[in-house]
Specification:
20% of the residues lie in helices and 34% in strands. By secondary structure, the chain is an alpha/beta fold. The longest helix has 15 residues, at 229-243.
Length: 358
Amino acid sequence: MRPGLKGLVLSGGKGTRLRPITHTAAKQLIPVANKPILFFVLENIAAAGIEEVGIVIAPETGHAIQAAIGDGSLFGLRVTWIPQAYPGGLAHCVKIARPFLGDSPFVMYLGDNLIGTPITQFADEFRAGGADATILLKAVDNPSAFGVATVDDAGRVLKLVEKPKDPASNLALVGVYFFSPAIHGAIDQIVPSARGELEITDAIQQLLNDHARVKSHIIAEWWLDTGKKDDLLAANTTVLDSWCRTDVRGSVDAKSSVQGRVQIGRDTVVANCRIRGPVMIGERCNLRNSFVGPFTSVGNDTEIADSIIQHAVLLEGCRLQGINRLEDSLLGRNVTMSSRGSQGLYRMSLGDDSDVEV
Ligand code: G1P
C-alpha cells in the first residue's frame, strides 16, 4: 500500500516585505478576518484527511509559531517541527524535511498562501496515483512575480521558469504542491538560483527533464499571496467577502445600526455606532460614536471612539480616539492613534506598540 499523504507547511522566512509589522510577528500569524493565515492553511490540510504535518520554522519567528500551533491537536493534526537555520529556498525546506517525509507522498503548502478552494479534491486525485507531482496554477496579471508554467491542453506541464522577465504564459504557480518521493532525487540535482536559493520550481523542471509525470490544475477560485501590506488588505477583503457571516454575540445599543454581514465577538460593547459589513469585530472590544465601514477586521480588546474607519486590519489591543478617518491600513498589536479634531484621511502601516498622534 502507498504510504499516506503527509503535509509539509513552510512557515519560515523573514517577512521583509511586510515590515514593520513583521519586526515583531511572523507573517504567517498575521490575522486575516481575525484568524491567523497559518490556521487557514492547517484547516485546509486537515480537511483533506491529512493527519501528519511537518512545519518548517525560522530561528527568528519559530517560537511564536510553535506557541500558536502547539501540538496541532487544535486542528486534528500531529505536528513535527523542522527548524531551518537560514532561508535556503523552498526546495531546501524539502531537503531538511526528508527525515520527516521518508517515502511518503506529501503536499507542500506555503504558510502565507490563502486559496479560496479546499484542497481535498486535489489530494484525493493525487492519492489515487499516477503523477510524480501535481501543481496548482492561477492566471494572474503579473506572472513575472511568480514561478510560471507552460501547459498543454490536457493540463500536462511542459516547462516551468521561476520569476521570468518574459513570461511564456500568465499561469503562476500557487504555493500548494503535491509530490511523490521522486522529488528528492530531483532536488539532489539542482543548484542554487541567482537569488541564492534552491528553487522548488527548478526541482519540478528537473522532474520534467527526467520524464516524470507532472500534472496541473488551474484554479478558478481566488488565490492570495499575503506577502505585502496591500496583498494582506486584499486578502482581508476577499476572505470577509467570501466567508463572513452575521453573528452578533456582544451587545449593540439601540442608537447603533448594523448593516450587512457583521460579526461581533463576546463581551464587545457597541454604543452609538454605524457598522456596515462585511466587518469582523473581536471579543472584549469597546466601540463608541464611530463608523466602521466595509472590509474591516478588528482584533480582540480594541477600543474605537469618535472615529471613522474602513478597509483596515487592526490587530489586538489597539486604541483609536478621534480618528477621522482611517482607510487602507494595517495596524499591529497595541497601536494607539489619537487626534484632537484633525479631519485628515490617514493610510497607515504601523508596527506593534506604535503610538501616533495626528
Ligand atoms: C514562491 C515560489 C514561486 C511561487 C510563489 C507562490 O515565491 O518560488 O514559484 O509562485 O512562492 O507564493 P517566493 O514567495 O519565494 O518569492
